[in-house]
């Protein structure tokens, strides 16, 4: 049961295996499986106040100030009024509670919105509408088109042929292309018969809840038969049903046990490195405070024993103080109260205000606003701003983060001529921009209006009916597995197995060869306005070994042709010797395309003789029905028929990057930020994107590929890579297992490397690399490389890589992604950034910062992050300085007041010092200060490096601040003390009284710290000026008012300093003392900074000098022309293709089948009858993409 939102149930034992029965709630309830309700909120109405206060008082500072408040309520030791502590403490607690309440209220709203969605549940033989929260494991639910998947479901049946469903997984992986799922035949035959579904009592045994999005294992027992279950039969919560009228599913995992919620993980409270350092420093300060109090208490005991005992006539001891030792004990606690300003509570208030202000700057930054989707940048947390200025490692997803998951047909080579470039009148290549004239496809009424091409010569070649050009686009329109849908006349929609294939068919469509429709036996193409139907005789499907695809068709004239496309190395081996010259020219073009980072593909064809094909088909039928070595026999037949091909040309597809990705990565690299890509894509696709993004370059010394399948082989490959990078690192150590260090804070040292290297490792090898015995070996090798790409990785592995770097590297990490498969990585890193695309928002909901485009990351880090870090460091250095100085004057005064715990300042001054007199000026600096403008920050990325090294606020700078404060406090106490000692007014009256000295000391202090603030401020605004001069004016106004006769007469006990201000501040020697004290306080600072700038200038000093000499700001970053280069490296379309779609197209379960049309790879050819099992039905929007 739940009591006040707290789970009071008996803790459930760890689940080893899930066992459930369909339509049997009573049976399933015995296992105490979670319901479908989710809860991300922390509090409710009753638990908020006690839980929030409990959490807040877990902070050392808050507990410390509560303790001080209790001390101040004890009359024997309190020398300050209670309100000096209770007012700021209440302010902090209230502000923090309000912020927490607002955040939790928003979480409640989000939870309620999701939990109250409606879905149809099969109960008591009827479909009833139920809220999501009431759905339970074992329920059968009905989903309809465009509905979100309610829970993790076993697909039972659907409205589509073969019980297929089409789902969009944007919430899971950020990809908007559809994926196909298929139910078991035994459940698919139930269709939408409610009686049959209600009687279904199948039992499922499967894996326990986990976060593996790409894997599921289980079995279904139904009618004494056992059926295997895998991921292709599971619909995950977070997906959306598309282009499927309806489907039924059995709930396997619900609510917090779904894979989506399991990937969200537990929300951890992230703290910055400055926060962690401040906690250490606060403990140091407490020790320093205790030391001062002990010294003063001992002094009090000695003084009372030697002097005070003999002055009891004038200074009688209270009745509660029997001796000097007890007096010293009470004095210790009195000084704890007086000296508590070394850790003022206003510090934490100010820090929260500064972080909130810097978060608003991110939200308001128009240069991080994406107008196409109306998406601004958003700081979803206000506690991590300064950490953005210290990032050393970035871990990025690929699809949807670096790329748009959009493929565009950019260039091609046909019969030795390259198309796609735009040349000027002089024949020079022009850069393609938005203003470049586009090709007019108005001659083709079926053209895709979204398709863009700029080379007009290719359209002219098509119109001139050049045979090779027509054959090139005819091949693209026939050789594929795309499924078309034509909702209205002329409005074609292609759903392709891979985005590359869709781009190629769309290109053929626009150049006059429109793939219109397909049946199991034919393909219909509109060629230059004329409709032609080709008889489809065979599909020789793709697989990872073949790396090519072929179709055999009969044209309307009766000629037999084989059309083939695939990787260049594969196709070249199968060309006719007569193609050598054309092959050499095409290879040059391919080198140019690869140099541009494009994905290349070679096209070839072959005319077949009727008699040879009939013989080949007969032999194929025998091979496809063989019981042994079927695959090998089929491969031999494929090799035989795909020989002596005629080369047509090559295509170049761009895996379209998000705007500005290469430039952003280059800028971040200049800032010494290392970029790691963690992606579920195949190795070839990931490497190609690495080159396109300039993370991998041809100029690199070497790119290491780690792809071994055993632990020892992986270790050897890693060591070989390290041996090539830096041999001495191998020679200097024996070969042994690296044990996990007992010390959690163990740091792996940085290795200096000459040259640039890249590392690519696949998921299998990475699994070994992340083992305890090898993690240090992997990390050390990876950190020597400029770029690391981990491909085929699971969401869990992404998080493990991030945690590994956090564990062994003293560095701040950032993870950026856009899908649910990135959530664990985003939560594991110090900073999580979500890309808010048009679809999936799961990554954004789990992130600390979000925006719409990857290119905004450089502005987030190099501008906002760096400014936030510098501002926070300046604030802390100054705040500790002004409060140490303020407090230490009390310490020195103790030696001159008999250690009596008397305050050196007026009580009102103590109360207002941090709240009024010095709060606004330091906030002004911390909110508006800039060492250089945003343009200069982007112009010189090396300005970012001091933050990575934590140079501006560390233990060293803290000690310097303490020494500076000790010096200043000595000046601020002894100069006024000496100046006031035995001093007379100009009218001969005595000036040397306690109140006059207090006024002089506090005035000197305020002016000195204000001037110090002015020296720290690099960027003056009208607000800074107002805060600075306004605070000084307020001080003198309040002082003159409080020390006036009127206030004394009204509140005699509260304002005893009557007339002190007007009697002291009209004396020239007082102002001379203020001037002398101020100069002595700031003189060492000015001298030190001048000497450092002249003798050992930092990168910041150098850039600021250049800025001061420059008359104009640097121009905005221009989009640079891509340097044209060639490369022998290839990335083929075939690499992103998936095997087996030919089987689906020609499947006889729902398509009319005859011996003239077959899928050569199908293992069921021998078993399928030639009769009609189902009438043909066009498959809508089918996309098979089994890659992650």
Q: Could you characterize the architecture of this molecule?
A:
The chain is α+β, with helices and mostly antiparallel strands and 1188 residues long. The protein is built from 40 helices and 37 strands. The protein has a nine-stranded mixed beta sheet with strand order 16-37-36-35-17-31-34-33-32, sandwiched between helices. The protein has a nine-stranded antiparallel beta sheet with strand order 19-18-30-29-28-27-26-25-24, sandwiched between helices. It has a six-stranded antiparallel beta sheet with strand order 5-4-6-15-7-13. Strand 1 and strand 2 form a beta hairpin. Helix 3 crosses helix 4. It is elongated. The two termini are 39 Å apart. The N terminus and C terminus are likely disordered.
In short:
With 1188 residues, this protein is an alpha+beta fold.
List key phrases describing it.
single chain, disordered N terminus, 37 strands, disordered C terminus, alpha+beta
Counting helices, strands and paired strands, the structural category is alpha+beta
User: Ranges with pLDDT <50 over ≥5 residues?
Assistant: 1-11, 734-745, 1148-1188
Q: Main beta sheet: strand number and arrangement?
A: 9 strands, mixed
Major sheet: arrangement of strands: 16-37-36-35-17-31-34-33-32
- Could you estimate the helical fraction of the residues in percent? 40-55%
**Tally of helical segments:** 40
State the end-to-end CA separation.
39 Å
Mass-distribution shape: elongated
SS strand fraction: 15-25%
The whole-angstrom Rg is 38 Å
Summed over residues and divided by their number, the pLDDT gives a mean of 83
Family: Belongs to the cation transport ATPase (P-type) (TC 3.A.3) family. Type IV subfamily.
Enzyme class: translocase
Organism: Huso huso (Beluga)
EC number: 7.6.2.1
């Amino acid at each position: 049961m739940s009591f006040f939102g707290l789970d009071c149930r008996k803790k459930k034992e760890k689940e080893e295996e899930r066992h459930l029965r369909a339509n049997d709630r009573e049976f399933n309830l015995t296992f105490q499986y979670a319901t479908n309700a989710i809860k991300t909120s922390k509090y409710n109405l009753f638990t908020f106040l006690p839980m929030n206060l409990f959490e807040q008082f877990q902070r050392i500072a808050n507990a410390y100030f509560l303790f001080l408040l209790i001390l101040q309520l004890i009359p024997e030791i309190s020398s300050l009024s209670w309100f000096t502590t209770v007012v700021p403490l209440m302010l902090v607690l209230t502000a923090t509670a309000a912020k927490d309440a607002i955040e939790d209220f928003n979480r409640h709203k989000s939870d309620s919105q999701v939990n109250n969605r409606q879905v149809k549940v099969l109960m008591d033989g009827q479909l009833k509408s139920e809220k999501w929260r009431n759905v339970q494991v074992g329920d059968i639910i009905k989903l309809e088109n465009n509905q979100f998947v309610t829970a993790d479901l076993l697909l039972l049946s659907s409205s589509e042929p073969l019980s297929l469903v089409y789902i969009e997984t944007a919430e899971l992986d950020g990809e908007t292309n559809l994926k196909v799922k298929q139910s078991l035949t035994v459940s698919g035959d139930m269709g939408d018969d409610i009686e049959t579904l209600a009687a279904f009592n199948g039992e499922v045994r499967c894996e326990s809840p986990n976060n593996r999005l790409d894997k599921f294992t289980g079995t279904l027992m139904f009618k004494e038969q056992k059926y295997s279950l895998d991921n292709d039969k599971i619909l995950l919560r977070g997906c959306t049903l598309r282009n499927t009228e309806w489907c039924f599913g059995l709930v396997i995992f619900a609510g917090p046990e779904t894979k989506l919620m399991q990937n969200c993980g537990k929300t951890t409270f992230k703290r910055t490195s400055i926060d962690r350092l401040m906690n250490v420093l606060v403990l140091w300060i407490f020790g320093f405070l205790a030391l001062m109090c002990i010294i003063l208490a001992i002094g009090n005991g000695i003084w009372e024993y030697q002097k005070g005992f003999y002055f009891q006539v004038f200074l009688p001891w209270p009745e509660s103080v029997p001796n000097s030792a007890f007096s010293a004990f009470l004095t210790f606690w009195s000084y704890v109260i007086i000296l508590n300003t070394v850790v003022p509570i206003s510090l934490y208030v100010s820090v929260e205000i500064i972080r909130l202000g810097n978060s608003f700057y991110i939200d308001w930054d128009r240069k991080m606003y994406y107008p196409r989707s109306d998406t601004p940048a958003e700081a979803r947390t206000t506690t991590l701003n300064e950490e953005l200025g210290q990032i050393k490692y970035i871990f990025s997803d690929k699809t949807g983060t670096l790329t748009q998951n959009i493929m565009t047909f950019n260039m091609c080579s046909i019969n030795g001529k390259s198309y796609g470039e735009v040349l000027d009148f002089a024949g020079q290549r022009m850069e393609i921009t938005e203003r470049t004239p586009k090709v007019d496809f108005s001659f083709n009424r079926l053209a895709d209006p979204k398709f863009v091409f700029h080379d007009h010569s290719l359209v002219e070649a098509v119109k001139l009916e050049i045979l090779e050009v027509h054959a090139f686009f005819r091949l693209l329109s026939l050789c594929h597995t795309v499924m078309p849908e034509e909702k209205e006349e002329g409005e074609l929609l292609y759903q392709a197995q891979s985005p590359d294939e869709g781009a190629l068919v769309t290109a053929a469509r626009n150049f006059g060869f429109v793939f219109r429709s397909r049946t199991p036996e034919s393909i219909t193409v509109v060629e230059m306005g004329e409709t032609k139907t080709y008889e489809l005789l065979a599909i020789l499907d793709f697989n990872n070994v073949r790396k090519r695809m072929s179709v055999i068709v009969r044209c309307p004239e009766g000629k037999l042709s084989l059309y083939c496309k695939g990787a260049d190395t594969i196709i070249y081996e199968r060309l006719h010797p007569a193609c050598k010259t054309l092959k050499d020219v095409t290879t040059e073009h391919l080198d140019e395309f690869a140099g541009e980072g494009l994905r290349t593909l070679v096209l070839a064809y072959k005319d077949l003789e009727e008699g040879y094909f009939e013989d080949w088909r007969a032999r194929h039928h025998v091979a496809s029905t063989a019981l042994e070595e079927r695959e090998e026999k089929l491969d031999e037949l494929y090799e035989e028929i795909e020989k002596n091909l005629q080369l047509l040309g090559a295509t170049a597809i761009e895996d379209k990057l998000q705007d500005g990705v290469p430039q952003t990565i280059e800028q971040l690299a200049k800032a010494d930020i290392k970029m790691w890509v963690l992606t579920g894509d195949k190795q070839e696709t990931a490497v190609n994107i690495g080159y396109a993004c300039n993370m991998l370059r041809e100029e690199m010394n070497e790119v290491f590929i780690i792809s071994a399948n055993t632990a020892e082989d992986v270790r050897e490959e890693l060591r070989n890579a390290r041996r090539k990078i830096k041999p001495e690192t191998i020679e200097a150590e024996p070969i042994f297992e690296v044990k996990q260090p007992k010390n959690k804070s163990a740091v792996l040292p940085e290795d200096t490397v000459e040259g640039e290297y890249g590392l690519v490792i696949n998921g299998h090898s990475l699994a070994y690399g992340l083992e305890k015995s090898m993690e240090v070996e992997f990390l050390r090798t990876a950190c020597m490389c400029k770029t690391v790409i981990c491909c085929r990785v699971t969401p869990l592995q992404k998080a493990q890589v991030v945690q590994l770097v956090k564990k062994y590297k003293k560095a701040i990490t950032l993870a950026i992604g856009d899908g649910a498969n990135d959530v664990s990585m985003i939560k594991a890193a110090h900073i999580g950034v979500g890309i808010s695309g048009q679809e999936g928002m799961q990554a954004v909901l789990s992130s600390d910062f979000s925006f719409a485009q990857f290119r905004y990351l450089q502005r987030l880090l190099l501008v906002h992050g760096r400014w936030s870090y510098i501002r926070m460091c300046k604030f802390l250095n100054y705040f500790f300085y002004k409060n140490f100085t303020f407090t230490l004057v009390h310490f020195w005064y103790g030696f001159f007041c008999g250690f009596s715990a008397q305050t050196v300042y007026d009580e009102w001054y103590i109360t207002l010092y941090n709240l009024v007199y010095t709060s606004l000026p330091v906030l002004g600096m911390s909110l508006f200060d800039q060492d250089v403008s945003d343009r200069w920050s982007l112009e010189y990325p090396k300005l970012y490096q001091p933050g990575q090294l934590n140079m501006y606020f560390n233990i060293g700078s803290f000690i310097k601040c303490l020494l500076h404060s000790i010096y200043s406090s000595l000046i601020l106490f002894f100069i006024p003390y000496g100046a006031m000692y035995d001093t007379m007014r100009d009218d001969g009256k005595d000036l040397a009284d306690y109140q006059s000295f207090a006024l002089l000391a506090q005035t000197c202090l305020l002016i000195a710290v204000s001037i110090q603030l002015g020296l720290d401020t690099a960027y003056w605004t009208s607000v800074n000026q107002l805060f600075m001069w306004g605070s000084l004016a307020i001080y003198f106004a309040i002082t003159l008012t409080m020390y006036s006769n009127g206030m004394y007469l009204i509140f005699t006990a509260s304002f005893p300093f009557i007339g002190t201000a007007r009697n002291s501040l009209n004396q020239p020697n007082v102002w001379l003392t203020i001037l002398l004290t101020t100069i002595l306080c700031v003189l060492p600072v000015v001298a030190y900074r001048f000497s450092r700038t002249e003798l050992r200038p930092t990168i910041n000093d150098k850039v600021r000098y250049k800025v001061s000499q420059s008359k104009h700001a640097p121009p905005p970053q221009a989009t640079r022309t891509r340097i044209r280069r060639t490369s022998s490296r290839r990335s083929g379309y075939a690499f992103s293709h998936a095997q087996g779609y030919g089987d689906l197209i020609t499947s006889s379960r729902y398509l009319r089948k005859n011996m003239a049309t077959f899928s050569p790879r199908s293992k069921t050819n021998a078993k399928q009858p030639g009769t009609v099992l189902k009438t043909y039905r066009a498959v809508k929007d089918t996309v098979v993409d089994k890659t992650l």
